[in-house]
Amino acid sequence: MEKNNQQAFLSRGCICAPQPHTRQLDIYRHSCNKLDVFDWLKNISPPEAYPANDIVEVRFKNSRKEFFSAAADLELETGDIVAVEASPGHDIGIVTLTGEIVRLQMKSKGVNPVATEFKKVYRKAKVSDIEKWVTAVKQEDSTMFRSREIASSLNLDMKISDVEYQGDRTKAIFYYTAEDRVDFRELIRVLADAFGVRIEMRQIGMRQEASRLGGIGSCGRELCCSTWLTRFKSVSTNSARTQQLSLNPQKLAGQCSKLKCCINYENACYEDILKDFPDTGKDLVTKKGTAIYHKMDVLNRLIGYEYKDSPGKIIMVPADRVKEIIAMNAKNKKPEELLEEIMITELPDDDNNTQNTGLEDSLTRFDKPQKKTRNKRRKRKTRNPDKPQN
Q: Which of 100, 40, 92, 44 lies closest to 66 in space, CA to CA?
């Protein structure tokens, strides 16, 4: 029984594998689950006159959490397996947060504790509840594969990416992705006859699909959305332009065919630095000639300019020096040079992208250099006059 429970928890991304001599409370707390939350108020007792919080946060599959109302006489702790109200029947979940930290969690997610009608926590799960839950979890993978075959036989342009059974095995939620609207009424009837449960179809986006399926990113690590990222913020090409990234869709797109979420990670840092940068739309006029903007190195606070008379040679000028030259040009003054010590960068011949900062190399850099073959002079053979010629 204990082994079956452990396999069910691991398949749902609920806990890490419990170690010997480990208390049950430590198994569920602060593990490798991406939905874990650190309770920094657990050692702080609220004032005695402060009303107790009867709302708890419950985790189901490793992508869904909800808030439930618990009775005052039901003492719950993080890691307790509970039976909660569902529609219809009941569901089985794991308590992730209790106490005052739940109020802050609801505030961060925009849940109004006064206007919201919360479902109830019935009880702590019994052994029979867990056995039925384990049986339902084991059927999720086979149900997903079978449902894909049924959808393909009905010629439906959709992809079923995940299946979640309710704890009492009276209902199953099918998560799918589709580009256009899908009429799945016939599919629901076939699935209900095949599996004998109530069917609910939920359409999810490409990012949510990638978070459920998982995978390895171009950085060599597991996908952020499947390990720790729970909120998806919109990613635009403006963030890539801000960081001077090459607008190459093959490199900027993730496995979900959308822009990578990691583009937003350092974007705020670049925006703060660029606030102190001068206007790159103005040309710099010197006695040597007029210099036009070409590129910039934001983190090193360098801006690349090239003279109109000598294109292809980029001079990296500090941002403060550019401000100084712009101020001199505003007073009709011209400096001698852009820099006293000129840093010149040669442009490659086939560089057609003005946003290329030199960070991208050719794929052939991994190839071994070929040895140069020298043309050896062939020695002329002296012909023997006595030997017959062909």
A: 92
